[in-house]
Fold this sequence. Notes:
Elements: E1 2-4, H1 7-17, E2 21-23, H2 42-50, H3 59-75, E3 80-84, H4 88-100, E4 108-112, E5 116-119, E6 125-128, E7 148-149, H5 152-168, E8 172-176, E9 179-183, H6 202-212, H7 219-229
Helix pairs in contact: 4-5, 6-7
Amino acid sequence: MEITFNESFANNLAQALHQPVIGVPLDLQLGDLHRFENAHASFWTLKARYDQDQTNPDYFSTSTQKIEEVQAAIVAGEPLRVWWSETPDDLSGFYWLCDQLKGHLNQLSQVKVPMTAPKIGETLGFREWANLGEIGVDEIPQYLPTTKDVSLADRQVYEYVWANLLAENAPVRATVNGHLIGVDEAFYDGLLVIPAGQKWSPIRIVGETLGQYPIGVPDWWYLYRLDQLSR
């Protein structure tokens, strides 16, 4: 079973590999990590208020359903392959998955996808992706040879890392020099592109910020922070 933490990438992966993929939209870089036990946790209300793409606004049910699919695959003893990157969402998701496998002997392999790459063609350039969902279907097969097994010993270490994340339960988790650390809510506020003397709409500010800093922070979080800064 293929697992990833980005629904758009899950769809692309399913097309590229012609097999089932579980996309688990956990948003683990943001908010209370204990929210999956509580449908009334403030995180769900916050996201529902600021998320502009509300194709399925019942975020709690969507997330818990996907979690149950992963747990069912684990109980069934299926071999799992997880696709992830060093974005905070993916890194947190990888640790979470290792914790879910605690006490189980499923084979676990991983494909760690880089978020930057040189662009070679008629013109040279540098490509940056904000998240795995930006990687096209045709580009996916090139990463298959990088598949590696995750040993039981390594999984136990990552379980410990997840336990620490749960215990800290910071408002935000960010990747700094490859390290996942807990930070406060205002951590990304300095990135918001707000030009002096110009009255840009929040949507434009967020769009400019996402374009200038492709680091995987969702648009709804920036909208929330802009709202907080305006008060």
